[in-house]
Design a protein that fits this description.
This protein is an alpha+beta fold. About 30% of the residues lie in helices and about 15% in strands. The protein has twelve helices and 15 strands.
């Protein structure tokens, strides 16, 4: 069912207002909301391509979606799990495929390293319970791994010590990059090529990849840094290697399952729509995953850590992230959940259902997928640091209006 005209107009006004002052609010954004039939309930771009640009932002502009990539990599891995090619809980198999995991040590508070007590499994990687972190989200790692850059495009920068023994905690980090390596070594394909063949092409998507072509580069939205006074300046993209690499150089670049994709919001929204429709694209008729597999992805895997999102994310690198005390605050602080590569919200103030999956990308891209109520979407910007209040406010407003209109 399409949204009423008045609702669409109000949503457009909300998005436009969020970009009213491109130098202090949001320079430009694209918002796409879909139903499980793959139809766009709402799609609107506002503002400029960048604070230094005279070009209007359009729905054709391309964004670095960073950690929104994790859901795609998770879908790809779960295709192999479904086929019996990968096992969720076989540490022997995983460490054979990714021998780098065998020698990984565990970082102690005093800076020393000790051996890990158990093997790492694919389920641990997909749920961020293996122990890997990100230097920009973890002060201890940042101090020990000075100079590490998880966006360098080089596999050496994900070869990090664990922050705890495998399975004994939750820490957001480079886990999905290792899951992507497991997929590559099992299939003999690069992660990007695998996703192209088994996800993007079956869904008819032409504007999502880890290695943008010249046409996509021309449509790339500018990256921004918000200063402490709230003003914005353009800055380099963090993931520069794929944007500058020649076709001969691509083979040597890490295909980052954790943060490597560039996309238009409309293309990404079609992947959300496929999950809404129990793994089948209503647009192309292709079944990417069985319903049972999608159900598993949306099932809490870490009930033993009900407050994982409340342990706080420090601003270890303040240019990349704000401090975040609670990833998704919900009144009453109910138990938090994590599925296979994304958080489960357990309700929330906008009207979403308890089983809603959602996550984000570092430059303030936010997506959600509510299978119970049949709606999802993505709000894209290109602003650092992460946790930008203006973008968070827009996401909240859009979602609230959508659920109100749907009577949810």
């Amino acid at each position: 069912m399409p949204l009423p005209t008045e609702v669409v107009q109000n949503l457009k006004q909300t998005v436009d207002a969020a970009c009213a002052d491109p130098k202090t609010s949001i320079p430009g954004t694209s918002v796409v909301v879909v139903g499980k039939d793959g139809e766009e309930l709402f799609a609107h771009a506002a503002g400029q391509r960048g604070v230094a640009s005279n070009e209007n932002m359009t729905l054709d502009n391309v964004f670095w979606i960073a950690s929104c990539t994790k859901m795609i990599a998770g879908l790809a891995c779960m295709q192999l799990v479904e086929q019996g090619q990968l096992q969720l809980d076989d540490g022997d198999e995983l460490e054979r495929l990714v021998p780098e995991l065998k020698e990984t040590k565990v970082l102690q508070k005093d800076g020393s390293l000790v051996d890990k007590k158990r093997k790492i499994t694919l389920r641990m990687l997909l749920t961020h319970t293996a122990g890997f972190g990100y230097t920009f989200f973890n002060e201890s790692l940042c101090a020990v791994l000075d100079g590490f850059d998880e966006f360098s495009g080089d596999v050496k920068d994900i070869l990090q010590p664990l922050t705890f023994q495998p399975g004994e905690g939750w820490q957001y980090g480079v886990n999905i990059d290792f899951a992507g390596l497991a997929l590559e070594r099992k299939t003999g394909m690069s992660l990007n090529d695998y996703c192209l063949k088994n996800i993007y092409e079956p869904l008819g998507l032409k504007n999502i990849t880890m290695f943008p072509n010249e046409d996509m580069k021309k449509r790339l939205a500018s990256m921004h840094q918000r200063n402490q006074d709230g003003s914005l300046v353009e800055r380099d993209h963090l993931l520069l290697k794929p944007l500058k690499a020649s076709s001969n150089e691509i083979g040597g670049i890490l295909n980052s399952g954790g943060a490597g994709a560039f996309a238009t919001p409309s293309d990404y929204a079609q992947i959300i729509a496929t999950l809404l429709n129990d793994g089948k694209s209503a647009k192309t008729g292709v079944q990417l995953l069985k319903k049972e597999t999608v159900d598993l992805m949306f099932t809490n895997q870490i009930s033993q850590f009900p407050d994982f999102g409340r342990q706080g994310i420090p601003a270890a690198k303040p240019d990349l992230t704000n401090a975040i005390p609670d990833i998704y605050p919900v009144e009453g602080k109910p138990p938090q959940g994590w599925g296979l590569t994304f958080m489960l919200s357990n309700g929330g103030p906008t009207g979403r259902s308890k089983s809603t999956g959602f996550w984000a990308g570092l430059p303030n891209c936010w997506w959600w997928c509510d299978r119970e109520k049949g709606v999802g979407g993505i709000v894209c910007s290109q602003i650092l640091p992460f946790g930008d209040p203006k973008v968070l406010g827009l996401w909240f407003d859009v979602e609230t209006q959508i659920y109100k209109a749907l009577g949810a």
